[in-house]
Amino acid sequence: MKPPPFGYRAPRTLDEAVTALADADGGKVLAGGQSLVPLLNMRLAAPAELIDVNHVAELDTLEADGAGVRVGALARHARVERSATAARVQPLLRRALRHVAHPVIRNRGTVVGSLAHADPAAELPAVLALLGGHVEAVSVRGRRVVAARDLFVGPLETALADDELAVAAFFPAAPPRTGTAFAEIARRHGDFALAGVAATVTVDGDGQAEAVRAAFLGVAEVPLVLDLTEAAASGRLAEHVRERIDPESDIHASADYRRHLAGVLAQRALAKATADALAREAP
Ligand SMILES: Cc1cc2nc3c(=O)[nH]c(=O)nc-3n(C[C@H](O)[C@H](O)[C@H](O)COP(=O)(O)OP(=O)(O)OC[C@H]3O[C@@H](n4cnc5c(N)ncnc54)[C@H](O)[C@@H]3O)c2cc1C
């Protein structure tokens, strides 16, 4: 199918982009187009105007320092995945990105676009939520920071206003003695996950887990972050996860199967993240 008619603007600067968004009645940002263009073609979205930000060079940034990784709105998944510096500062980013679609889609799709799209089965919203990251949003009214816990409001719905451009996302660095892991099950590699989990484990001086957190995708309307420290210590991790989640059934999987997957994936991710924490501590 072909998309419905729409107006098109291709701003060159951030100022032009936010002015275009403010002027547009029913405008949508076009970034990598890997989610928006299929929605247009299937006529599930019909924006009056597309604001194509692909020519706004100041959004094409990727910075990493001791505090974390700041990903500009035009940084493609592949660029972030391949960045050795980003992987050193926050290894969970690369681990999760390898599960996002296929390489061709990762060459074009953007990290910030994925967060703005807020698909409940997407990997990066769960990672941002788990790490306590944030998104920076700019409009003609000014700039604000939206914490991950406030950003994801519902399926394909964020707290960003229609006239706000998400200019960057910030993923905090891995704290000391902390390991990370990502695990998911999809029907085929590159498909959206039936269920998935991102986990962090912090170990104490004796190598015992002292803090265990996980964010689940594909099992709730928004990423679900759970503190699993006590459940892990009690040996009831999988049961605890199954009790805490309430997934939906759809044509891909039943709610019961998703609940089962979430428990199994949590165990796998916890084991991997613990091993990662110990390896990072090893001299
Ligand atoms: C076959 C296929 C498989 C896929 N599998 C996965 C998968 O397994 N996991 C996964 O996470 N994703 C998957 N995707 C989606 C892909 O990762 C997209 O790249 C991503 O979701 C959106 O990024 P984008 O830059 O392409 O955004 P676009 O498609 O350009 O935009 C998506 C939405 O976000 C808004 N938006 C984009 N950028 C901004 C911004 N800076 N500020 C405000 N709003 C903005 C747009 O207006 C639109 O509503 C898949 C896509 C395809 C086609």
What does this molecule look like?
The chain is of the alpha+beta class. The chain folds into 3 domains: 7-52, Uridine Diphospho-n-acetylenolpyruvylglucosamine Reductase, domain 2, CATH 3.30.43; 57-172, Uridine Diphospho-n-acetylenolpyruvylglucosamine Reductase, domain 3 (2-Layer Sandwich); 178-281, Enolase-like, domain 1. Helix content is 36%, strand content 27%. It is built from 12 helices and 14 strands. The chain has helices at 14-23, 36-41, 77-82, 84-89, 91-97, 103-108, 111-117, 123-131, 148-151, 229-234, 237-244, 255-281; strands at 7-9, 27-30, 49-52, 62-65, 68-72, 134-139, 142-147, 152-154, 157-158, 165-172, 178-185, 195-203, 209-217, 224-227. The strands form 4 sheets. Strands 4-5-10-6-7 form a 5-stranded antiparallel sheet. The chain is globular and about 60 Å long. The relative contact order is 0.12. The mean pLDDT is 96. The protein binds flavin-adenine dinucleotide. Flavin-adenine dinucleotide binds at residues 28-36, 38, 73, 100-101, 105, 109-110, 112-114, 116-117, 119, 122-124, 160, 165-166, 192.
